[in-house]
Amino acid sequence: MHTFAFAAPCCALMLSFNASGALPQGAEQLSVDSAPGQTAVSAQPVRSSVTTAGSGGSAYQYCPATASSAGTVAFVGYAGSLDLSQQNFAVFVTGAAIHPSAYGMFIFGVNQTQVAFGNGYLCIQPFARMPLQHLTSETLYQSMQSSPEEFAPFQPGSSWNFQFWYRDAAAGGANFNLSRALHVDFAP
Predict the structure, then answer these.
(1) Residues with Cβ < 8 Å from 44, sequence gap 6 or more?
(2) How many C-beta atoms lie closer than 10 Å to residue 47's C-beta?
(3) What are the tens digits of pLDDT across the range 84-97?
(4) Strand locations in 25-98, DSSP E?
(5) From CA 89, how far away is CA 162, in angstroms rounded?
(6) Is the N-terminal amide bond of 126 cis, ω within 30° of 0?
(7) C-alpha distances in angstroms, 129 versus 46, 52, 54, 101, 106?
(8) Which of 93, 92, 86, 153 lies closest to 126 in space, CA to CA?
(9) Largest separation between any pair of C-alpha atoms in the chain
(10) pTM, whole model, 2 decimals?
């Protein structure tokens, strides 16, 4: 059992998951325990899924990521409900290299891809972006509660992909990297 605790202005959550079953090489099945109507996704598996109990919707990780200059692999998850009427959905990234003078941003779109880009892989194309954020914390959030205008494109029953693009000059190469991606099917 692995347990992670996250706290942010939008919410606090506890994520627990078990790996189980005979799945294809490199894949893990996740089960998530959380408060009713609340859930989150971990990025450890190559492709995993979770369904939010009580409110519908589902999400899974996809697309590989490469290690940052800090030796970590960034991944995007979510907090809150996949039922947008709850107004508490948020995306978060963890594992990006922390460089207070550098920036990153969440990108989103409806089409999945896997194209070498920078020091990693672009997993969404075409994409739109959310505002830039300083890379000052191990976990960064963009929430529906704090920035409702950024979440206007998302409608009940729609499907979207999220990824985090961040500057990582210490890594060399292209001086930027990307996280693994998250696919979300919002509840109808």
Answers:
(1) 2, 17, 19, 28
(2) 15
(3) 999 999 999 999 99
(4) 48-51, 58-62, 75-79, 90-94
(5) 13
(6) yes
(7) 24, 26, 30, 20, 6
(8) 153
(9) 45
(10) 0.74
